[in-house]
Amino acid sequence: MGKLVKHLEIGSSPHVSDGASTDVIMRNVFFALLPVTVFAVYAFGTGAALVIIVATASCVLTEHWLCRWTGKPSTVGDWSIAITGLLYGLTLPPDLPLWMVFVGGVFGVAIGKFMFGGLGMNAFNPALVGRAFLQAAFPQAMTHWSAPFAEGRFEHIPSSVLAMPFWEPTYDAVTSATPLALMKFEAEFAGGRELMAGLTSGSVGETCGALILLGGIYLVARNMMNWRIPASIFATVAAVTWAFQLYDPATYPGPVFMLFSGGLMLGAVFMATDMVASPITNAGCWLYGVLIGVLVVAIRFWGGMPEGVMYAILLANAVSPHIDNLIQPRVFGTGRRAG
Amino acid sequence: MALKQVSSTDEFIKGLWRDNPVFIHMLGLCPALAVSNTAINALAMGAATTFVLLMAGLSVSLLRNFIPREARIVSYICIIATFVTCVDYAIMAISIELHRALGAFIALIVVNCLILGRSEAFASKHNPGRALLDALGMGVGFTGALFFIGVMREVLGSGTLFGVGLFPDGFQTWTVMVLPSGGFFAMAIWLLVVNWIRQRQADAEKQAVEQAGKAAS
């Protein structure tokens, strides 16, 4: 197989180079994720640390093997796959067996990224593909949440994390309901301050909304993320939820709860903004965000599962090439009426 | 133009690998994906399809000089539907549970493009003996493909094979493999394996030809 040289510039002229390359951007995404990761390990202890390490390692190793196997130049060096792995780890429950983490990582990178042609070609966010596969394959393990800030979380490793490959995990702590599950099944709404500070249970990296927002603001300030996507998601979710809360405050929670609960912050800031799987034009990004926002609210309120951010983003990923087709930028130099 | 003489055994063998209906021609994918969730379902579906293939092939081949060209598809469908109805009642008599597990997919054998395709492309142009051999090969190939998919899905999805537990307690079942999406995954993995083997065979043949060419020069 000959070496495949990818050289494709997308976007209308004129082009200005700002020196940003894949590895520069990815290094900054890593810095933005660092506080979230540190907080996750602090809140959930050794289990979360192991999950994150194995998630990253499984993605990096898969990419490395597949690159070697197909004779392509290795794309491990540009950090992008390590970021995928880290993000994938942050979406998992803190006491998920490590062998499942590994299976999902291999699946996400091999099927979600490599089958489509590798870096820059993936139609879907590979981290979410891996997570979606795990959700479908092991629904019980993927909805077992341990409580944050448990006693002795740094001294011992949860037994479920070290479950034998292909064997069911045994849990030493009872599951602790996530705010969204409480909303859905008990009609109990957690307070906004609690959610922002990350005091609730949930996936490893999704609990602390404030730190995720901080990372997002850093990336926007460095001009390395399209702020329109998260802004549009937040605005849509807030507007739709607000309307429903006005209609029936007992059943529907408020916008603050919806924005800071579950994976919405992490998804909107770090997942939906995947540069490959999101639309190219700014108008397209607004539309894409609105679509995700509406889907998130619809799945959370009326779906069978408490959380819907993952499916909302994957569905919007599937639509984003069509959004690009729909919205064609005006050719530079032609007037609005010139057509 | 003289047709190349094809041996009788080759008429049978081709359906197993070289012209495998599921893995090579991608025919009859609907039952292959839908009722391959256990090995038993896969085998039953394969047996039912093989029976219909055989009977339809025989009938079409016997009647090939009487069916007018313009009305051939309708005639084939009628012939196939007759045998599918027989199979439907036979399965119901043998095991009502199996009938329930296979559901509408027994009736849907009528529109399985594998059977119609073999009737149109082969049975209507060959004598009954050849048509039967071809149908048997295709049927066995189809059953084998379904069986491989079914084994993968049952072992991973339920931890059993033919309903017998394979693992000690505590085996983590992969729920996704018994769901419809598992059919696509299992099918894709087998396709990957089959295509990889075929690629290797083709490469080996090409090398052999090249070496023979070098030796001759």
Structural descriptors:
heterodimer; A: 339 residues; mainly alpha; 56% helix; globular; B: 217 residues; two-stranded antiparallel ribbon; 9 helices; 68% helix
Structure, explained:
The complex is a heterodimer of chains A (about 350) and B (about 220). With about 350 residues, chain A is mostly helical. Helices cover about 55% and strands about 0% of the residues of chain A. Chain B is mostly helical and about 220 residues long. Chain B has a domain at about 10-150. Chain B has 9 helices and 2 strands; from the N terminus they run αααααααββαα. In chain B, β1 (about 160) and β2 (about 165) form a beta hairpin. Chain B is flat. The interface of A and B includes residues 100, 138, 167, 168 and 169 of A.
Main interface: chain pair and counts: A-B, 13 and 10 residues
Structural class of chain B: mainly alpha
Largest sheet descriptor of chain A: none
In one word, what is the shape of chain B?
Answer: flat
Mean pLDDT of chain A: 85
Please describe the biggest sheet of chain B, giving its number of strands, its sense, and whether it closes into a barrel: 2 strands, antiparallel
Helix/strand order of chain B: HHHHHHHEEHH
Radius of gyration of chain A, whole Å: 20 Å
Number of helices of chain B: 9
Helix content of chain A: 55-70%
Quaternary structure: heterodimer
Strand line-up in the sheet with most strands of chain B: 1-2
How many runs of DSSP E, i.e. beta strands of chain A? Answer: 0
- Total strand segments of chain B: 2
Radius of gyration of chain B: 20 Å
Uncertain spans of chain A:
none
Give the distance, in angstroms, between the N- and C-terminal Cα atoms of chain B.
32 Å
Helix content of chain B: 55-70%
